[in-house]
Amino acid sequence: MELKYCWRCKMEVLMLNKEEHAIASKLYAKGFKVLKKDRQERFKELLDYYNDLTGFGETEPNAIMHHSLAQFGPDCEKCGKPYRTQKAKLCAACGNKRIVTE
Ligand SMILES: [Zn+2]
Ligand SMILES: [Zn+2]
Q1: Which ligand gives the minimal distance to the CA of 64?
Q2: pTM of the full predicted structure?
Q3: Residues 56, 50: contact at Cβ < 8 Å?
């Protein structure tokens, strides 16, 4: 888990690492099988998992699903915000050209 700027939410959020996100994905899939009308009840296990982990009060299951560290690139060398994707060559926040060292 790591605090990172989310391009969709336009704020810093706690993102899940690979292992944490794998667990969240399972709980998310499980939620679809719960026959309850209320979304927060259906995805209660997922919300509980995320909120226990982060201490945050997330109420939107879909938000958790896109808060995966693996979806974003590393932090920009200039402004510190993460590149939007793993393969991004330009920082969307400051226009910095990414130095690819491979
Ligand atoms: Zn987000
Ligand atoms: Zn930048």
Answers
A1: 1
A2: 0.86
A3: yes
